[in-house]
Structure formats: structure tokens, C-alpha cells
Design brief:
It is a single chain. By secondary structure, the protein is α/β, with parallel strands linked by helices. It has nine helices and ten strands. The protein has a five-stranded mixed beta sheet, with helices on both faces. It has a five-stranded parallel beta sheet with strand order 8-7-6-9-10, with helices on one face. α6 packs across α7. The radius of gyration is 21 Å and the shape is globular. The mean pLDDT is 87.
Length: 279
């Protein structure tokens, strides 16, 4: 009796140039004849980086085997992000992902899509893909499933704090990008750990107010402050003024310069390209 595998397709792109994983990916791209492009507008298509089966343990009842496929767009993060900012990323990313969705469906599969790194920004966290099919072929919408990894990133961030010996209680914590998917979840999770002060930094005043109110109502012992930043480069000295000890960067595309940070603060940067990059 043959085993039926569900198909999970992850999508991401090249990340940082000096990473060991990037070197391995570039070596495989060379063997495959895949060219690295500087813009999503150049001719390219996502390529299959990894494929492997996952067999759940026998005690995990109700779970079946999964075939995992990891696709990458051959564009480095800094160039991918430039196209996102210029609102030129959606078309090429949608076409690349759709070609793989439709290939899996034509082979009788119901693919599960995972949008990683900046592919979720390019597609509006997947909503753009769904809207594309609603306009062009509504019957397709029920034939695949789509998600992204923001909740997982938030959980890994909390775990990283724990590994670093930071419990959060009594600390002064700043979250940059507090109103985004990762930032808001992280803020709510950290508020339960009884920090002394939480500084929520974001661009949207209404969302900041709602998040601040939520945290204050559920954790009245925590002092909650907000600060609005409209630029990509954080210029305010509010982290210094409020004696922030832990800075969490949870939004893509910002620059974090040393002069706006208090001495000896600890930075947790979840972004690619890194907010703490030198150039």
C-alpha cells in the first residue's frame, strides 16, 4: 500500500551574503545554472533548494507524512526589499508562486504554502495571492492553503530571550515595529513577564494606541509608553531617555544606529536585511 504525502511548499529568497547557508545555496545555483538577479523585474523563477520527507512519530496520532519543498527566489534580501518598497514585487512573486501552486494542483495535490522572509511582505501576507485567484479563477482558492511564519518568529524570539538569560521581569523593553504581526504578538507575550517598562515604537498612531491600551488593561503593573517613527531610520533618542535595556527589532527595513541606543543595551534583531547592518 503506497503512502500519500501532503505537500508543503515554503518560499523565501537569498538572505545575507556572508552566511554559510548562502554560500551553499550559491554553489547549488551554479550547478543548476540558476543566475542571481538584482531585481525581481529581471527574468527569473523560484528554484527548488531543498526537498525532503517528514514522517511524524508514531505516537503523534492523526498526522500523516509530509513532503517538504523549499523554494527560493534568486534575489538577495536587500534587492528584494527595494522592489517591495517600490511596489514592484507582487507581480513577479505572485507569478512565481502561482506556477508552483498550479503545478502541484495539476498533479493531484492540495499544496500548503508557507511564505517566509520578504515573500509575505510582497504578497500582503498571502492576501494578494488569494485576491489574484478570486479575480481570475475563484475555484482555485479552495485548492490550496496558505500561511506565514510570524507567530513562529515571535515564539522563537521569546525563546531566544530565555536562552540569553533574560526573563523580562523588571526590565525596560523597547519593541520597534510594535504594531506589526511579529511586534504586537511579542509585546503581548512579554507584557505577561512583568517588565518594569515597555516602549512601543511604530508608525501607526491608532494601532499603537490600541496595543498600548490592551497591554495596560491586561497588565496594569507595566508602564507602557508609545513613540511614533515615520522614517525608515530611527532617529529618536527615546530609548536613551527611557533607559531601555532590551531593544527588539520586529519590523523590516529600519536602520538602527548606535547613537540612539543606551550603552550596554541588548538588541534582538529579527529582520533581514538586519537593522544593525553596517552599510
Amino acid at each position: 500500500m503506497s503512502t500519500t504525502y501532503e505537500t508543503v511548499c515554503f518560499f523565501a529568497h537569498l538572505l545575507l551574503r556572508d552566511e554559510r547557508s548562502t554560500k551553499l545555496i550559491l554553489e547549488k545555483m551554479k550547478r543548476m545554472g540558476v543566475l542571481n538577479v538584482r531585481s525581481l523585474l529581471e527574468s527569473h523563477e523560484p528554484f527548488l533548494w531543498l526537498e525532503f520527507p517528514f514522517i511524524p512519530p508514531t505516537h503523534a496520532s492523526g498526522l500523516g507524512p509530509v513532503n517538504i519543498k523549499f523554494y527560493l527566489f534568486p534575489v538577495f534580501a536587500e534587492h528584494f526589499y527595494e522592489d517591495v518598497l517600490k511596489e514592484k514585487a507582487f507581480g513577479p512573486v505572485q507569478r512565481g508562486i502561482s506556477s508552483i501552486i498550479e503545478s502541484e494542483i495539476s498533479s493531484g495535490k492540495h499544496p500548503y504554502l508557507g511564505l517566509g522572509a520578504l515573500t509575505k511582505n510582497a504578497t500582503g501576507h498571502g492576501m494578494g495571492i488569494l485576491q489574484h485567484y478570486m479575480q481570475h479563477d475563484p475555484s482555485m482558492v479552495s485548492r490550496f492553503s496558505i500561511t506565514h511564519g510570524d507567530a513562529g518568529t515571535a515564539a522563537l524570539l521569546i525563546e531566544a530571550l530565555s536562552y540569553a538569560g533574560i526573563k523580562g521581569d523588571g526590565a525596560n523593553i523597547a519593541i520597534l515595529g510594535a504594531t506589526g504581526a511579529i511586534g504586537s504578538v511579542t509585546a503581548k507575550m512579554l507584557a505577561k513577564k512583568s517588565p518594569n517598562k515597555m516602549l512601543l515604537v511604530g508608525r501607526n498612531v491608532d494601532r499603537l494606541t490600541k496595543l498600548s491600551t490592551f497591554i495596560s488593561e491586561h497588565n496594569p503593573e507595566v508602564q507602557v509608553l508609545t513613540n511614533t517613527e515615520s522614517e525608515r531610520e530611527i532617529k529618536s533618542t527615546v530609548c536613551i531617555d527611557e533607559n531601555i535595556q532590551i531593544v527588539i527589532v520586529a519590523t523590516t527595513g529600519v536602520r538602527l544606529l548606535p547613537e540612539i541606543l543606551p550603552p550596554r543595551c541588548v538588541i534582538f534583531d529579527t529582520t533581514t536585511p538586519s537593522a544593525c547592518r553596517i552599510s
